[in-house]
């Protein structure tokens, strides 16, 4: 089989770098930069948004977009496998654009949250870019490019963090959502012009009913976690949301098990994929919750005697840029290592580093230099985690299922982020204290928050090491024994 710089002539897959591939990668990196402007940029102005809307629902303002990602991802992943990845990616970008405009014009917090639910469709853009890479590249180079595509936007984020801070200070937080809308529609045009349509699609039906059941179930359960700490864990409203969500998820599980083409085939998930998803849900949830905590640490000064506080010690933009640098380095490095030692081993190594980063934030809660260093380590971990998670899941999927299986990664990313953000916010609200007539987060609350995040990372590390051992054992098992196991 003869390979050229443009790709393999027989299969049409890229096997080495070429101008068309470089252009494609550049566009996909910019698409994921748009995702960052939609999901993480608002963290910089989180205190301003809380003041503007007169609410303390930190998790709703921050995590509602990730919640929407969990609702959108399976539907868009299945649609991409059936109708084409480029077409669905363009639609996703346009929906995100509409959501950003709603957020910019929102007169109250609930309209804002509705806009975030629309804008959260951008989360699907991440896994669609990965599915496109695996669709057009040979497996070995695809692992490296997945790392670049998922993490390359970190370069832009380093600059944008400081620009975002200045823009928000001059024009209000709404300007961030206007910028996000402009970036989204620009990238929709770029994708339409540069990205080829899928080579492989699969006939099938889209389970809209299953998507509605799963999404409403997640919304009910996570709403209970968010509202229970404020209204009471046994109050009628939160309990009704919990029961409604549990019924919807149970119904979705039962109905899906009987459908020939369910949105997510729970029965078809093997042990390696299940372990991969568990690692991702715990580690990314921990990272996102820590990212949510960082702006709150800067609101308190160490001189207030609460046992923590970074106020007056340095720039919040620098603190949020440090993870961006880590992501930028961790993703491509994990992709290069995965091509040599496999994504499972790379995933395990990344999560171990993340556990060290989470533990280090106990010191970083009161010392700015330590916070920058350990925030960098956490970013490095999430870059490696995203790359290795997508590579691991993609290696377990058939070509015609790349969109759907990649969407599962984003589902658990969103679920982990939302759950741990809500849990952390509940802990902070339950332990708040009053200082000089104003409610502030207590040291007990902050360090309990950090303990939950570090514990989640540690559990993820244990599971990641178990996954790496399982994959290594399977790789060393003779092929005829693997065949007998799969047919027993």
TrEMBL record:
Membrane topology value = Multi-pass membrane protein
Coiled-coil annotated spans: none
Major location category of this protein:
membrane
Q: Where in the cell is it found?
A: Cell membrane
Keyword Glycoprotein tagged: no
Can you tell which superkingdom this protein's organism belongs to? Bacteria
Q: Which residues cross the membrane?
A: 21-45, 57-76, 88-111, 117-134, 141-163, 175-195, 207-227, 233-254, 266-287, 316-337, 344-365, 371-392, 404-427, 447-468
One Pfam family recorded for the sequence = MFS_1
Asked if Transmembrane helix is a keyword of the record, the answer is yes
Q: Tell me the ranges covered by the Major facilitator superfamily (MFS) profile domain, including all copies.
A: 22-472
- Which UniProt keyword terms apply here? Membrane, Transmembrane, Transmembrane helix, Transport
Q: What PANTHER family does the annotation carry?
A: MAJOR FACILITATOR SUPERFAMILY MULTIDRUG TRANSPORTER MFSC
Q: What is this protein called?
A: MFS transporter
Which species?
Saccharopolyspora halophila
Q: What is the lineage of its organism?
A: Bacteria, Bacillati, Actinomycetota, Actinomycetes, Pseudonocardiales
